[in-house]
């Protein structure tokens, strides 16, 4: 009797393991004709390789007021940075000084919801994507002190690198004094820090005086990704336009990471509830059914 039970269990286990391989497919909605979020519907689905792709909803807002909506699947190797978990919300946001209101303001340029469960990128969720993204912000006194020119007409001391970018383990360990020397800019200083270059963990830095010497308002452009399962926000890259004297120093990026504020209250519809990884959910149900059948036959 025990031998039969053991054999039945082994058979069920084998079927379960085989079923995992057979359920590596993923069903995503995919539509190209959505132009208005409130009225957007999407019934078309595609069957994709769930091991190498995942589903997404994307909303991109243009400065002209237009909106781009994407409902589709996305290959893991398409991004310029490594995706650790295809269950996330990524944002591109700008913190800029408004000289009319004389205030620092945040703008959401793009927000993406990625998921890995059958039919998880349904069009109805577009309405839940917060219009202000994650509301990324930095302390306004720090922004003004660090990025704004103190006296009109003063030149901006800015590093100019002789190579396209300088990479190292982290901003704290890099020495850029020889490759990126300080020069006076008549306009603004452009600085970029990339925290994850492709699939490496290198930090890459570049800085330059732009050819256009017209006065540019200071701003911080941030590309970040919030991994929902890890409850962790990671900065992918930062691009800064600044007018303050000697604002292109390396510790600027660590300051931004340390001081960055975000609001996760508006992404509650996307947080784990009944979320189960699609690769295993069907398999678990199937295993329970097999075991129940084996017990019924045994008795």
Helix count equals: 4
Total tally of structural domains: 2
Structure class: alpha+beta
As residue ranges, the low-confidence spans are 14-23, 274-291
Q: Work out the strand percent.
A: 25-35%
What does the radius of gyration come to?
25 Å
What's the order of the H and E elements?
Answer: HEEEEEEHEEEEEEEHH
Q: What does the overall shape look like? A: globular
Total strands: 13
Give your account of this protein's structure.
By secondary structure, this protein is of the alpha+beta class. The protein has helices spanning 2-22, 140-147, 251-259, 278-298, and strands at 25-29, 45-49, 53-61, 67-75, 88-98, 103-115, 156-161, 166-168, 180-185, 189-194, 203-208, 219-227, 232-242. The strands form 3 sheets. Strands 4-3-6-5-12-13-10-11-8 form a 9-stranded antiparallel β-sheet, covered by helices on one side. Strands 1-2 form a two-stranded antiparallel sheet. Strands 7-9 form a two-stranded antiparallel sheet. The chain folds into 2 domains: 1-137 and 261-299, no CATH class; 138-224 and 235-260, no CATH class. Residues 14-23 and 274-291 have low confidence and may be disordered. Helix content is 20%, strand content 33%. α1 (2-22) packs antiparallel against α4. The protein contains 4 helices and 13 strands.
